[in-house]
Amino acid sequence: MSKISQAVTTVAIAILYRDDGYLMQLRDDVPGILYPGCWGLFGGHVEPGEHPDEAVRRELAEEIGYVPPQLTLFETYADDRVARHVYQGCLEVSLTELVLGEGWDMDILTKGDIKRGEHYSARAQQIRPLGSPHQQILLDFINTHQNHD
């Protein structure tokens, strides 16, 4: 785990999983955001004075209208631009019960999709890449939890 500098952006994101699938958001394909048009984990910025535990719950409620009953910290990843507090939780509702409040699309990605680093979006009608840090985080999670399937 890297030390987190005060100059970096702090975000709280969530690995939401069910069976062999992982819920991901297709980020809007607009300039000015990190990894535009790429698949990423749901979550977002930690507001000043807000704890990452609170931020991840707030962001999930805003972005998909769902917060798992239990979210636990998986790991914190930090680089020179972003500190990512990554939480994990079980997705206990169907995709049709979620309301996409932010992003271009959402879907359940398989381990194969994550390893390949791409997934087809029905809404975009094209194969879109995973954001590289999100892919690495999920690969780490899968490797850590491979014996729990």
Describe this structure in words.
The structure is a single chain. This protein has 149 residues and is α+β, with helices and mostly antiparallel strands. It has one domain (9-142): Nucleoside Triphosphate Pyrophosphohydrolase (Alpha-Beta Complex). It contains 3 helices and 9 strands, in the order ββββαβββαββα. The protein has helices spanning 52-64, 111-116, 132-145, and strands spanning 9-18, 21-26, 39-40, 42-45, 72-78, 82-90, 105-110, 118-121, 126-129. Strands 1, 2, 3, 4, 5, 6 and 7 form a 7-stranded mixed sheet that branches. The protein starts with 8 loop residues before the first strand and ends with a helix. The model has no long low-confidence stretch (mean pLDDT 93).
| Oligomerization state | single chain
Classified in CATH, the superfamily is: Nucleoside Triphosphate Pyrophosphohydrolase
Structural class: alpha+beta
Globally, the shape reads globular
> How many β strands by DSSP?
9
Q: Quick one: biggest sheet?
A: 7 strands, mixed
Rg estimate, integer Å:
14 Å
Helical coverage, percent range: 10-25%
